[in-house]
Amino acid sequence: MPRFSLDSDVKVLLPDGRTRPLTAYLIPSFLLMLGGLLLIISIFLPYWSMTMYAPQYPKGLKVDVYVNQLEGDVREIDSLNHYLGMPPLDEGGQLERAISVWAITALGLLLLAGVFVHNKWAAVLALPALLFPFVFLADLAFILYQYGHSIDPQSPLGGAIDPFMPPLFGEGLIGQFRTVASAEIGLYLAFAAVFVILLGLWFHRAAYKPVLDAKADAKTAVSRSES
Prior knowledge:
Blueprint: E1 11-13, E2 19-21, H1 23-42, E3 48-54, E4 57-65, E5 70-72, H2 74-84, H3 94-115, H4 121-148, E6 170-174, E7 177-183, H5 185-226
Antiparallel strand pairs: 1-2, 3-4, 3-7, 4-5, 6-7
């Protein structure tokens, strides 16, 4: 039966004559590519959800928020929001949803490029992917703030509701409606990608810093011999 194994006897020769195992250089490449893969997979999974409970909907109405679409009971929630004087759900984050797939793909490609960069610029290439889930949450909080502060006072219930901040996570109460917001598997994957990328950068530095130091030492030795 064929078996995959990494031969520990395979070494990489450094400029100063020392050797390091090949696995030291394969591990960071694998982790950076895995981080990019996790981000790409997260595109197809919900990042955040909100369930609204109302007297006429005791089992709740749920909307799942993906990076590029909304799914679930969007039409029913929009009908309830109409009475509250809040805009339709689809009006929030239209630009973000339009560019999200291309943006996340670009983050994955930057991580892939980092595999071929053997200095500190690999961390710079990984930085956008590291920031991505935090940017997503900040943007979502801004959109929720806009919703809670865009109440039409002329709507049936709008005059009785003060501007408010819907919860990013946890429970909230809007008049007679209760909402529960929670993170979903896509957001967990994005944060898992952050952890994997940070681990990859740690192994990347451990693997390539000795190479850079050996190159610098070799260059210094040549300069001294020529002087």
